[in-house]
Amino acid sequence: MIPQQFVHTIEEVDTVVIRFAGDSGDGMQLVGDQFTSTSALMGDDVATLPDYPSEIRAPAGTIGGVSGYQVCFGTSDVFTPGDSLDFLVAMNPAALRANMPFLKRGATIILNEDAFIARNVEKAGYTADPLTTDELANFRVLRVPMVKATQEALGAAGLSAKQVDRCKNFFALGLSYWLFNRDVKQTQRWIIKKFGNKPDVLEANQRAFEAGLQYGKDGKLVERTYATRAKVTPRGAGVYRQISGNTATAYGLLAAARRANLPLFLGSYPITPATDIMQVLQQNREFCNVLQAEDEIAGIGSAIGAAFGGALAATSTSGPGFSLKTEFINLAVMTELPLVIVDVQRAGPSTGLPTKTEQSDLLQALFGRHGESPLAVVSASSPRDCFDATIEAARIALKYMTPVVLLTDGYLGNGSEVWRVPELDELPVLKTHLVTNPEGFKPYTRDPETLARPWAAVGTPGLEHRIGGLEKEDGSGNISHSPANHQRMTDLRAAKIEKITQDIAPTEVYGDPNAPVLVLGWGSTRGVIEQAIGHLNKAGVPVAGAHLRHLNPLPPDLKALMQRYKRVLLPEINSGQLAYHLRGKYLIDIEQFNKVEGQPFRADEIEAKIRSMPEIKG
Amino acid sequence: MTVVPTNNLGLKRQDFLSTIDPKWCAGCGCYSVLRWLTGTFPTMGLPREKFAVISGIGCSSRTPYYVDTYGFHTVHGRAMTVATGLKLSRPDLSVWVMTGDGDALSIGGNHFIHMIRRNPNIKVILFNNQIYGLTKGQASPTTAKGKKTKSTPYGSIDPPIRPLSMAIAAGATFAARVADTDGQLMADVLQQAADHRGAAFVEVLLNCVIFNDGTFSHLTEKAVKQDTTVLLRDKEPLIFGNAKDRIVTIDGFRPQVQAHVPGGPLPQNALIHDVSVEDSSLAFLLSNMEHPDLPVPVGVFRRVEQTVYDDHYAPKGGDLTRVFRGSDAWVEDAAGHISLLGAQAAPASAA
Questions:
Q1: Predicted pLDDT of residue A59
Q2: Which top CATH class is A241-426?
Q3: Per-residue pLDDT tens for A580-600?
Q4: Which of residues 467-506 of A touch B (CB under 8 A)?
Q5: Cross-strand partners of B331
Q6: Do the chains contact at A479 and B65, CB–CB below 8 Å?
Q7: Which residues contact B49 (CB under 8 A, 6 or more apart)?
Q8: What is the tally of structural domains in chain B?
Q9: CB nearest A294 (choices: B47, B114, B348)
């Protein structure tokens, strides 16, 4: 595959973690995206972590304005975007300084040396130019005059200095493609597609990209380049693409509606990091109705209205928006209408860290409402799993006539990985309780298997009825203030949610089943926990793992499963919310492992924690 | 899509009344709205199942229980959001919102503005009794300044909101006002609201016999109403008074009252009503006319045709697999060989 002109040695590698970092305006997300798509298309597995500031444009050159895109690519062991960096591409001193803590010892740093001028060094908070001190002594530093080289390549293209400067990301991309022997065709086509209507910008970016490649080919960077090893086990025959968690969630809604044979309605309001779900559906308006509502409350209110009219209805948000929706969630609990509420969790409380990830809305999802208000909660465990988790949420909502909270998070929503695109007929058919027969119809009678009430959509002749937030009489659904009836309805609403356990498959245990320690996880920690357990098992350390999709109701075998192990370890990106819940529910103690830094766990942190447990150390 | 009236289905007013007895106080103005609302429904040529009556919380919001159609008694202030979602996903329905001055203008103020500005084909009836009735007598956003209520024992210090001004400022394409006591006008106004394509807003001046009795009697008592209100008629001057001897004229932006000889020539600066003028300045000016300086206008303030929001909502469906694959999908065979899909497929080789 590698043409002759490369005289440099090529080292085969399994997995590489690289981060592209620069100012918010430097186009690092674009560079990372291209690098990732190309790697996926070359057969590598990929997992990405965009890491960007919440400001649109923080002052250029400052730490606060650094935008990064991390990708782990390779042919084995790609569970996560990677713990620490093998390579860092730093476009300025701030990007270097902000990412120093993430570098592996001996990592390679490719620097845009033109940016290392006194003013930028100072803005980044350095007291001395790190290129002149021993600060970078433990790393391999490759200095590249990216601005000058880009200027040289663009020469008489007739662009302003500022426009030329904006092309340097393509120079960096070209250079990275050379260093990792990436296929250039896909990106070359993409540049034409993206900038085809601006001929001067198109040509400039093309030239910068080629100049980056040429810079490497001319031997100006290093002697040795890298290529990922061919896969031992192929992914399997099928159609594949790269997908982010938020896109997968949006597609999951489309798929669920199609498989339920219902129209889809999304009521939503822009909020980081959930907005993409609404935007992806807006781009596909031929398949669904999307309302960008005036606020979070109207987002869910409109969805409940659509559900009353017989649509698969959903609302998407993040923590602060979820808080605003809680009163309306209870209306859906009381009126027993199907509804999917997607919470792409972010670091809280309050505005918190909007672009950073956290798993801290779990207790809010389980309990954050007035009254006795049970509902179903499910979680997604990886970007592509958001698709399946969304279909599961919709399935439960329709089968049990209940609101369902789907918990994803910023790390899943913005992260991406390779997804095998399913054919529609591979997906489950979702059954509904829609009724049309007026014979003996009462809005609050119940299906004995699910305890769901019939769904009489507005417009169905002969089924005219009234629903609302007031307590209902069992069966008739008329307003009732009877004490005994309130007790009965409270019990029925809880029993209905408990019925969902009949659909939950036995909890799958992986790793060493005879280990003394079970590592339990939920949501986005799956990749790191699996990776850590895989490493430890390889090293002969006995440890098992299990991951939860259903958080309410919990799998019926969970208590017995936990009792089989000497100790259960539960890593969470919160202060121990599931651990708190499980202790109360099962009276089994749990070893918490928590981190609330707005960042996902690293596999090595989990590994070290497991190794430190007395049950493991012996 | 719009609600197209079909032929008379033989439905009468009684067919739209449910078997539940209203739990409003004896003499409450709410009965009047129920009376005329159920009188309007049969004229629309739609079967009962095509109607949805959506409400928030408050005395007004009990209405769905008393109407034998689909009904949803939602949460405080949010009826318009539920109605919007229902209408957008089911444009075949006739959706009516029953709300009050607290429900629509206080806790639900944001939804009110945004529903009106989007102009969906939804009808909103605001029962304005200038008080919180269900919670037994607190000041509402329309309570008059200085009014003593349970929550304003020294008199309200909040300037009241004018519901019609708010609706018109938000871009209402249909806005009207009627008193609960004026059955004939209510029938006419509700009929026009029903026939309007777009959001229709009707303010009903409504008496609360228990907590705010007589708050509108200066506008509704037979002896004075001819002198304190003026009925708006399209393309006609604003002549009022028991003897039709007064007329509203305009001086710059300022309306004023002049004596008028019944049947005599109109003054040059007579204010002539026009419901269908695109510019909402006239309707806004009328909505600001208040007792005692000016007669309070009743009837239709504004009725204009604009794009109906639900017309934008018409998903057609299609090939979802194409969407899921996007523009960058590829095919892998069992051996792991990769080829590009479709249009993007062009020879690819390593750098």
A1: 82
A2: alpha beta
A3: 999 999 999 999 999 999 999
A4: 467-470, 478-479
A5: A239, B339
A6: yes
A7: A458, A459, A460, A461, A462, A463, A464, B69, B70
A8: 2
A9: B114
* Domain topology for A9-228: Pyruvate-ferredoxin Oxidoreductase; domain 3 (3.40.920)
Model confidence over B206-245: pLDDT tens digits? 999 999 999 999 999 999 999 999 999 999 999 999 999 9
Q: Which of residues 29-58 of B touch A (CB under 8 A)?
A: 47-50, 52, 54
Contact A343, A317 (CB under 8 A): yes
Say how far residue A601 (Cα) sits from the centre of its chain.
14
- At B336, the pLDDT band (50, 70, 90 cuts) reads confident
Is B117 in the same domain as B251? no
Domain around B141:
13-236+274-312
| Interface membership of B62 toward A (CB under 8 Å) | no
Q: What is the pLDDT of residue A7?
A: 65
State the virtual CA torsion across A102, A107, A110, A113 in degrees, nearest 10. Answer: 80
Per-residue pLDDT of B114-135, as tens digits, reads 999 999 999 999 999 999 999 9
Same domain, B116 and B25: yes
Architecture of domain A509-617: 3-Layer(aba) Sandwich (3.40)
- Does the CB of B71 have a partner CB in chain A at under 8 Å? yes
Residues of B in contact with A328 (CB under 8 A): 75, 78
Q: Which of residues 192-221 of A touch B (CB under 8 A)?
A: 213
Contact between A405 and A365 under an 8 Å Cβ cutoff? The reply is yes
Please give the single-letter amino acid code of residue B160: P
Instruction: Provide mean pLDDT across the span B270-277.
Output: 98
Domain extents for chain A? 9-228, 241-426, 509-617
Contacts of B93 in chain A (CB under 8 A): 309, 458-459
Find, among A523, A506, A571, A502, the residue nearest to A543 by Cα.
A571
Q: From CA B316, how far away is CA A284, in angstroms rounded? A: 10
Q: How many CB atoms lie within 10 A of CB A258?
A: 18
- Cβ-Cβ contacts under 8 Å between A and B: the total is 229
B327 falls within a domain:
no
Name the residue in chain B with its Cα closest to that of A307: B86
Give me the pLDDT at residue A1, please: 43
Whole-number pLDDT of residue A77 = 73
B179 & B298 share domain: yes
**Segment A148-203, tens digit of pLDDT:** 999 999 986 677 888 888 999 999 999 999 999 999 999 999 999 999 999 989 99
Determine the distance in angstroms separating the CA of B218 from the nearest CA of chain A, rounded to an integer. 37
Residues B154 and B133 in one domain: yes
Checking if the pLDDT of A2 tops 50, the result is no
